[in-house]
Write a structure and sequence with these properties.
This protein has a domain at 103-215: Jelly Rolls. It has helices at residues 8-15, 21-33, 35-54, 62-71, 90-93, 96-102; strands spanning 112-115, 118-123, 131-137, 146-148, 152-158, 160-163, 166-169, 173-176, 185-186, 192-198, 202-204. The radius of gyration is 19 Å and the shape is globular. Helix content is 28%, strand content 23%. Strands 1-2-3-10-5-8 form a six-stranded antiparallel β-sheet, covered by helices on one side. By secondary structure, the protein is an alpha+beta fold. A hairpin with a 7-residue loop joins strand 2 and strand 3. The chain is built from six helices and eleven strands. Bound molecules: zinc ion. Zinc ion binds next to helix 3. InterPro entries: Anti-sigma_ChrR (IPR012807), Anti_sigma_zinc_sf (IPR041916), ChrR-like_cupin_dom (IPR025979), RmlC-like_jellyroll (IPR014710), RmlC_Cupin_sf (IPR011051), Znf_put (IPR027383). It comes from Parahalioglobus pacificus.
Length: 221
Amino acid sequence: MAKFHPSIDLLTEYAAGNLPLAQSACVAAHLNYCESCQRTAVQLQEAGSALFGALDPVPVGDSVLDSVLARLDEDAPLSYAQAPEADQTEVGRTPAILQRLMKGDFSELVWRKVTESLRISYLKTGDPGYEFALYHIKAGGKIPDHDHRGSEMTLVLQGGFSDANGSYHEGDFIYRAANDTHAPTALQSEDCICLAVLDAPLKFTNWKYRWMNPFLQLRAG
Ligand SMILES: [Zn+2]
């Protein structure tokens, strides 16, 4: 059971459909692990639509109507599966929304080696403002101290990691604001795979790794 959850503010933005696509996909993936947040999101959606239904109708111009009708032909938006799969294979445990973006399992992804214990695989969500990537940290491995010019959402998919603020396991959701420095270390027992959604590239603060910063450009899209 997940111990760390999105804030109520984030869940409200999610339920209202206000989050950018990449962040919304990360919150949706957490809901796959967390019945409590899933229930809250449904309640917020119901409360939102009740409020919306109580509003007086506003006349809509032809151009708005045209753009709404045009969207009917678009692909369905990314969404989360209502219930986790019973199948406990690696792919079965992976949230449906990630399976769609990964088109395979973890071993079939293209992984870029960043340090001895860190590999990153970038996934495409179609959201140009956010990097959406999987981080693979070797058991006991450390991600060098880094901070962010923007926000960072993390969801633990496999194994776990710890930092100065706590220890995180499968399904845990962590949100960090800009300029929050931290140095996550994978748990000793197994390799850790996390989903990370960033709106600015991470920046290593330790002098040994600073030379890499120019290469860590945001790979959004
Ligand atoms: Zn939750």
